Amino acid sequence: MTIPNGPDGPTQVEIFRRMALLKANDDYTRKMVTGGKLFIPYYSYRGQEVIPAAAFVNLTDQDYLCTIYRGIHDLLSKGLPLKDLWAEIAGRKTGSCGGKGGPMHLTYPEKGVMVTTGIVGSSMPIANGLAWGAQLSGDGRVAVATFGDAASNIGAFHESLNMASVWKLPVIFLCQNNTFGEHTPYAKATSVEKIADRAIAYGMPGIHVDGNDPIAMYNAMAEAVARARAGEGPTLIEAMTYRFHGHVFGDKDEYMDKDVKKQAIADDPYPRFRAKLIADGTATEDALAKIEADIQAEIEEAANAAWEAEFPDVAELTTDVYGEVA
Amino acid sequence: MSDTDTAVKPVMVVAAINQALADAMADDEKVLILGEDVADPEGGGVSGVTKGLSSRFGDNRVKSTPISEQAIIGAAIGASLVGYKPVAEIMMMNFTTVAMDMIVNHAAKLRYMSGGHTNVPIVIRCMTGAGFGTGGQHSDFWEAWFSHVAGMKVVLPSCSEDAYGLMRSAIDDPDPVLFIEAMPNYWTPFPPAETGHRVPLGKARVRQEGTDVTIVTYSRMVNEALTAAKTLAEAGISAEVVDLRTVQPWDEETVLASVAKTGRLIVTHEAVTPFGVGAEIAAVVQEKLFGKLKGPVVRVGAAFTPVPFSKPLESAYLPDAAKIADAATKLVKG
């Protein structure tokens, strides 16, 4: 396994493009929810964009992803098209799941998006199975399970890490530690200082990384992906970040320390990375502004297409419960 | 039938399931087996259902797992999403509770929630049943729970031929199938199935024809119902015994045709009576045959208690041939 040298210039710009896409999509979604246009329980990921943006440039469309209800950033970075996303969260028949899944169950196998679960911790046991399939097929794919810090306290986490290690599965457990499990702060619910330390108990490497630093995040994931592709087994990554909004967008978030939140928003990694790329000559202001403008147009086009699209026919209610028996 | 006639030599249910798994694995390299102790170094399953399979098909396709039911079902679901056909053993039915989230929230629903873009062709095998003194946490029949979940299929064979044919169909099926094996039936010899035999899921079998009363049942209780039918015949009551074989989906057509003929229905199962499969069948039968019934639909199930340990309590808990015959006699003779 080689130690990564870090992302080159074009890769850094690609990471930025994804960050811009994720941030703008969250901003626009909150606007639509606030305005009453979109009627969904919305689990904002604002503040956590760097993790999938930087991590997933190490993946191909053939690699697998299992994510969770706070996972639209993961899905977009893995390649879920905006039009399929917006039509689905608007409950339209043109959505990625024909309107039957909604924002918590987005699925898009063409890009390796196999499962989005609304159950805390449940991305991990299924990611193991995807990785087992890849291992049996010998096709070099890896599976990624994303989850939050609180999910490391549920049994599925422990069962999954143990089995993945015993079976040497090509799977990456990517924990997005945003310091809250719903409303409860990390220290009140989790027995260890670092979730990465729990890897020791399962005989696998644990990486603790600043999930708001695109370069560090990229490198951590590159190392884990290389290990998995080399047949050397799973990795637990704990990426530190912060959730700018409450558990469900619109809740009173009085359980979040106001000063900590204020500081985290002041440290927003998005403008910082943007400024860095310009300062070190990796990209120009014009180039990044164009990326942002193009993305904004794409999001609005996708959302507008969703509003125009038809709802599913009620006859669809009873389809897809069971398949056709051959 | 003679002992030298191997073509019709009876086989035990445990051997029939083993043969079905072996034939499915030989026919399709995507068929996998996983579960606690399923590989040969660990005994080929605690009841020997998977004996010989890891030696024949390799450790990659037949994997003993940690005692981690969520991880077992999760691994089966994930592999099934990418083209494999895993048969996951959850040793005892009671242990499915540990994996309930994976089974109910994920295996059963992924097809629907993905709008048909993914499906979960897995078989979950488990054994259960009172009679071995295994008490409150190793003996329950919970087929009604799983039948209540859209997306699940639930199968309960009563004999070797059906066990083979239902297992082959369950593995062929594109959706999750819970395959419930009655442990007290494992070592009972029954006529064998032909290689490759399939029993379509959702098709009942009339095990004995009759005209006075229909007894609908499945799993080990089929044997009790057939014994009861003999007793009833001696008393001049002609009972028809219908083996559902699959409870989700259940064969409404066969049951309704039988009850339309006899006018009387008893549903009997080893599960506790309240809110059971019998309640669902009774509801549908009264709805569709209201004017044709000659008496109330009667349920003969287990007592509404946890499964007790002590033998006299266990016997009192369980439905059996005598209880079925009593119920049928009261129903027919009034």
Could you explain the architecture of this structure?
The complex is a heterodimer of chains A (326) and B (334). With 326 residues, chain A is an alpha/beta fold. Helices cover 43% and strands 12% of the residues of chain A. Chain A has helices at residues 9-34, 50-55, 72-78, 82-89, 123-137, 155-167, 186-189, 214-229, 258-266, 269-279, 285-308, and strands at 64-68, 113-117, 143-148, 171-177, 180-181, 184-185, 206-210, 235-240. In chain A, the strands form two sheets. In chain A, strands 2-1-3-4-8-7 form a six-stranded parallel beta sheet, with helices on both faces. In chain A, strands 5-6 form a two-stranded antiparallel sheet. In chain A, β7, α8 and β8 form a beta-alpha-beta unit. In chain A, α1 (9-34) crosses α3 (72-78), α1 (9-34) runs antiparallel to α10 (269-279) and α1 (9-34) crosses α11 (285-308). The termini of chain A are far apart. Chain B is an alpha/beta fold. Chain B has helices spanning 13-27, 53-57, 69-81, 100-107, 110-113, 143-147, 160-172, 221-234, 252-262, 277-288, 311-317, 321-333; strands spanning 11-12, 31-35, 62-64, 85-92, 123-128, 153-155, 177-182, 189-190, 205-208, 213-217, 239-243, 246-248, 265-272, 298-302. In chain B, α8 (221-234) crosses α12 (321-333) and α9 crosses α10 (277-288). At the A-B interface, β2, α5 and α6 of A face α3, α4 and α5 of B.
